[in-house]
Input
Amino acid sequence: MGQVESLFTCLQLFCLGCLFVLSTLLRVAQGALRWIVNAVAYNVKFRKVHLDKFLKGIIAHRCGTPENTLDGIRWCKKCGAVAVEMDLRVTKDGIPVIYHDDDITRMTLDEANSSREGEGSSIPTIFQVLELCKELDLTIFLEVKAFIGFGPPKAREIIKKLYMEDQSLYDRMIVCSFSPLLLLLVRLMDQKIPVAIIHRRYPITTVMPRHVLKPLLPYIDGVILWCIHAWFVDLLGITLMLVHKDGLSWWYVEDWRRKNVNILAWTVNDKHEQAFCEKVLQIPFMTDHPTT
Output
């Protein structure tokens, strides 16, 4: 028993030591971030792009049904949607497509379409989608999945190409992402491009629940959320946040409203939650059921 108790005591001391080291590193990181932010803010002043015009009417999440497809976009238009949200990824052979999951990064476009035989519509490229949305007069919320197999620098180059080839996108498409780095790169590249940051509670913990660093993920989430709320949104001149419905409250919305930042809720399918967003919070929302 004495050996077991000694081992348990050592483990407790080890955990306490790790927490002390982690808290010290977080304090150092916080100080470094403040220094970097002050240095950047001194040299760069991002112009705010107000996006109120994008927030009127029904906004369809993942292009309706079937999700992230051309048929889904046409269905959204028939249902009365004025805007569609979609996910941008890049295939193994470097083709930018509209697709949600990260398995597309390990396949070519032909391989991905072959694996979807019998599931309806094929996977569309971003160029096909932009052409159809222009034809149907639909606003686009382009969520850029700039993580696995598709980093922010590569995503920035694709976004640059899209806006250079079609100048009307400045009035029809918002670049959205969970990645602060991507939004920073886009703003540094072209301040006229409308951008929005996507936010939810525990963003890293939610997408990596079984990661080997799981005990540390809540602390990483804490640092990310502190950065977003303390300085990132204001520094980049962001005026729109896409926030998961479970993280919303009247006080939260009002706090951002005082900072001239609009909130767009996702994904709100329940009728009572939709009424809460419209009548109490007075904010727009995305839904999987874009019926009038």
In short: The first strand starts at residue 58 and ends at 60.
